[in-house]
Amino acid sequence: MVKVLILRHAPSLTGGTLAGRRDVDADCTAARDFSWMRGRIGAVQRIVASPARRCLQTLQALGLDADDTRPALWEQDHGAWEGLAYADLPDLGAMPAADLALHRPDGGESFEDMAGRVRPELQAMTRDTLVVGHAGTVRAGLSLVVGHAALSFHVAPLSLTVLHRHGDAWSVESVNVTAP
């Protein structure tokens, strides 16, 4: 069995805009939350991270270093939506999860495009690993178990999701664990 812990980075400092592939800083000032999360993570055999600054800053605030950074772990590219205020994002209405997973903003990628580059990274892990990534990274991992329904999960900043792989089968231990 392989345990894959996926930690979403600390809150992005974006001024209320969609970050996506923009390289922005993280707010790493919640020392108590970082201390609690470091204890919750415990010992892992390997640490990999998105090369995004906010992910590397989160690792540093935890007192950890990545063994490797993986460009495939970058957040979804939201194309023309990058940098828009959340209130200005288009309302896609009540779209079925399978359709939403395939929707591409102009100049960007769909959830399925992003998950298609993240899932092989997770599937290739052969030992207990901490992955520091994005909300999309977490949802891509969850999609190994629940398919496109992974898009329905809220993923809080500095939250931990734990998956297990048994051969080719995946299971979920916990989702969206945050400091109390």
Automatic annotation (TrEMBL):
Gene3D superfamilies: Phosphoglycerate mutase-like (3.40.50.1240). It comes from the Bacteria. It holds the Pfam family His_Phos_1. InterPro entries: His_Pase_superF_clade-1, His_PPase_superfam. This is Histidine phosphatase family protein.
